[in-house]
């Protein structure tokens, strides 16, 4: 994949050459000129002579696009803010606090969700909303408030 993407970007026509390109496994986030997505995709799909690798694309919808568990939201001024994205089919089921696992495993669930929030969400109001969401879903899984407070304190220290 690395060879393919280097070739594709290096040989892309000027009008559809990406200004930004980030890949994680088989997901790519790119920034190109408006209306050039099909041209770039067609170009990339010519690079693999075997035809085994095929790229597809999704364009932003309502000024939003997903990349992994990140929702990128384009503001009116052209800047972008980042939010945690959770699929509509996600059930908010996490390791139940009353299960027979070590406390460290349960605290790691909280740490994972909070660190994702802190590393992705850019604005304080959005961060507070995501923290409240994490607290709500973990409460439904039996997590007492002290566990969330403990992990928050551990992250700050």
Summarize the structure.
It is built from five helices and five strands; from the N terminus they run αββαβββααα.
Structure characterization notes:
With 157 residues, this protein is of the alpha+beta class. It has 2 domains: 2-59; 66-156, no CATH class. It is built from 5 helices and 5 strands; from the N terminus they run H-E-E-H-E-E-E-H-H-H. Strands 3-4-5 form a 3-stranded antiparallel β-sheet. Strands 1-2 form a two-stranded antiparallel sheet. Helix 3 runs antiparallel to helix 4 (124-140). The longest helix has 18 residues, at 103-120. The model has no long low-confidence stretch (mean pLDDT 94).
Count of the domains? 2
Structural class: alpha+beta
- Look at the structure and give the mean pLDDT: 94
Query: Order of helices and strands, N to C?
Result: HEEHEEEHHH
Instruction: Enumerate the spans where pLDDT stays under 50 for 5 or more consecutive residues.
Output: none
Gyration radius, in Å: 20 Å
Strand count, sense and barrel status of the largest sheet are:
3 strands, antiparallel
Side-by-side strand order of the widest sheet: 3-4-5
The coarse overall form would be: elongated
Task: Measure the end-to-end span.
Answer: 39 Å
